[in-house]
Each structure stands twice: as C-alpha cells, then as structure tokens.
Amino acid sequence: MWDHSGTVSGLLSDLIAKRKRLADYGAFLGITANLIWTAAAYVSFSYSTERTRGSFISMQWGLLSVFSTLGSLVAFGINFNASSLQVPISVYIVFILLMVSGFFVALFAIIAPSEVRRRDGTPLAHYPHEGLWQELKNQRRLFRDWRLLAMFIPMFASEVPIIVLSSLNCGCILRPRARVIIGAIWIGLMLDNWKISSRRTRGVVTVTAVAVLVIAGWIGMTVWLYKNPMDLLNPPLFDWTDGPFGGFFILNLIFGMNMVVVTVQWIISSFTNDPEQLARLAGLVKGVLAGGVAAAFGTEAAGLTQLNVIAYNFTVQAVGLVLMFAMAWKCVSATNYEKEENVIPPADVQAGKESEE
Asked: Of the ranges 25-39, 41-55, 65-79, 187-201, which one carries the lowest mean pLDDT score?
C-alpha cells in the first residue's frame, strides 16, 4: 500500500552516491518492488471469486492511489511554503517509516494460501506440490499461450501515461505544493456489475468505457501541451493558482484512475481460477508492465519532444485498447468453475450445480 520506492531511491542517490550509482539502486528496487507487486496481484487474482475479482483488483489500485495521495500530502504539508525545489530529508524519513510499517503488517497478517477461506467457508483450491523443474516448464508454457501473446501490448502499455505525467510534474511544471494525483476505483463496479449477466459483456462494456475516457485524455493532453509548450530543462513553475493548472489537474484525474491496468488485469485473470496459474500470470503482468514503463522512459531519455513522446504512448495504448476489446469478446468465458481440477468452486456455485442435478 505504501509504494514510495522511487522516492527512497532518490534519497539513497542524493545522500550516499551523489547520483553516481542511481542505476544500481534503481535495479535493486526494481527487482524487490516487482516481488511485492507480484505478491499483491496474486492476492487480488486468486483470493477473489469471479463475482468479486474486478472489485479486488480495483480496490488494490484504489488503496495504492489513496496512500500515494497521503504520501504526497506529507510532502505537500512540509513544502507548503517552500520556494525551492529541494525535498527535505524529513519527507524521505516519513516514507521509509511508512514502507517499513507495511512490511510488519504483511509479516503478521498474511497466512498461507492453503489456509485462506472464503466467506462461505470454502478453500480456494487444492495445492499439489510441484518441483522447481516442473515450475520452470509451467512458466515456459505462458509464452506459448496465444491469449497472453495477444495481451502483450495491452500489458506493455497499461501504465505509459504515468511517464508523461511524471515528466511534466517532476520536470517542475508544478511547484512542490501542487503535486497530488488522485486515483479512483469505480471501474470495479462495472466489472462486477451483475445486472449485466454475461461476464463477456461486462468486459466489453468496460473496455469501451475505458477507451472513450483514455482517448479523450490523450487528446486533451496533446491540446494542453500544444497550448503550453514545455522545455523540461528550463520549465515554467506553474502553481495551482495559474491558468494552465486546471486542465492539467483534470488530466491527472483521468489517467490517475488506473483504468487500463485494472481492466488488463481483470481480462488476464479471467482466463483461469487456478491460484498457481494466477501467480504466474501476476508475475507476467507486472514484468511486462514494468518493461512498458521502462520503454516509455526511454523515449524521454532519447530526447524526443513531449509531443512525440505523447504520440508514441498514445499509439501503443490505442493498439492495446483494440486488443483488449478483442480479447474480452473472444476469450472471457461465462465461468471457469468446474473446468479446472484443482480449483474448489464457491459454495453458491456448488449449490447451483447440485440444484441442476
């Protein structure tokens, strides 16, 4: 929940290595953060039922947004009257304490997956023991699944808007007291809306709604940047009282909802209910997502103009939205229960089967 690894990386860079070994610390944090993200995605994928998976995934991203906002408010309060762009050490100390507290919560609150029980008392699945060699074979099968290959670009592009937004924010376009991005969890209400009986229809409707908002956001960002051209090496210091702030704040709200990444994860997790397979999918999603973010950062590092960076990210994400629609239509089935040997269906599913018999 407290995800401020990038902030801590900056602290280590400034205080220990004076930015000379930033790549080393970034690589270490990237590996460890991906383990945390994979474990978190595994929980939201496998501990939920088909009826609640959208809510679980969106709630997780909503909590991330809430606590990221609280972390931003810490910096907001400390820097409220600051005139310089230097972040005080006290901000980093607070972030580190918050992250350590999350570690202890996880240490004492998380139990073994085999001991997890749903509200109806049913376990999630049977967990047969498999050795390392078998697990490596299972990992290799992921790259032979055409559905996952088709979802590569959606996974790759699911968080690219954050690159443009962070560049504009961290490029000091907004003064220190105006840097808060707010997320939302409304997407889960659409994905789990059982007024729409078909799971495939819910997926298609959700992807369509997300596409409309995302495309509108990219068009709005292009227009905003065209009217407010930026030199990130010598940016203007817009504050919340300045004219350009209003439009940029709306763009932060649109892209801060994490709509694409929540929908991508829901589509991929709809392929199976097997917790072990979902664990592999969780790692794949987070790894490909991180690769997409790294590639988007590469466009910045290559010295492209902001409009060209937007063109690249918009194109990749637009292609991803088309593939998401196709996969939601083609591959999201009515249910996977009773189709997988190790999965134990919820009590209501079992009751429905018995009544039919």
From this structure: 65-79
Computed over every residue of the chain, the mean pLDDT equals: 79
For 120, the 3-state DSSP assignment is: coil
* Residues 218, 236: Cα–Cα separation, whole Å: 22
Phi, psi of 48 (to 5 degrees): -90, 165
Alpha helix stretches (DSSP H) within 181-242: 187-191, 199-227
Per-residue pLDDT reduced to its tens digit, 302-347? 777 778 888 899 999 999 999 999 999 999 998 999 898 889 889 8
Other Cβ atoms closer than 10 A to 124? 23
Residue 221, classed as helix, strand or coil, is helix
**Long-range contacts made by residues 344-349, C-beta under 8 angstroms, separation at least 24?**
344/122, 344/123, 344/124, 344/125, 344/126, 345/122, 346/49, 346/51, 346/118, 346/120, 346/122, 347/118, 347/120, 347/121, 347/122, 348/120
Q: How far is CA 288 from CA 63, 218, 293, in A?
A: 22, 22, 9
What is the number of other CB atoms lying within 10 angstroms of the CB of residue 38?
19
Would you give the end-to-end CA distance of the chain in angstroms?
44
CA distances from 59 to 44, 186, 303 (A): 9, 9, 37
Residue 274 identity (one-letter amino acid): D
Q: Whole-angstrom Cα distance, residue 72 to residue 180?
A: 6
Indicate the residue type of 335: T
Listed residue (101, 106, 95) closest to 36, CA to CA = 106
Tell me if the pTM is above 0.85. no
Nearest to 43 by CA among 59, 28, 67, 30: 59
d(CA 235, CA 306): 12
Helix, strand, coil proportions of the chain in percent (round to 5)? 70, 0, 30
Residues comprising the chain, all counted: 357
219: which 2 tokens? 């068009």
